[in-house]
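Hey,
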Amino acid sequence: MFQLFDLIMTSPIGVFLVSAAENTIYAVLVATECDECGFNDLGKLLFGGLILAVLCGVAVSLWYRRNREKDSEQFVSIRSTKNSL
């Protein structure tokens, strides 16, 4: 697995992806730099991100459960429900 990762990272595509990610991170840091932002504002952002992550997790869980229930209605089993010995 490490060899595959090493090959991808040393290939031209891997180098391009890493540099693109680095440039994106630098752009986000420059865009979000705020002199008036204090520690309290960062705490609000962290709390808001936590709430958003929890809501997204609940939504994905409900969506997955609903789709799993729909798919189970179409499944027909040929196995016996009783264990006969």
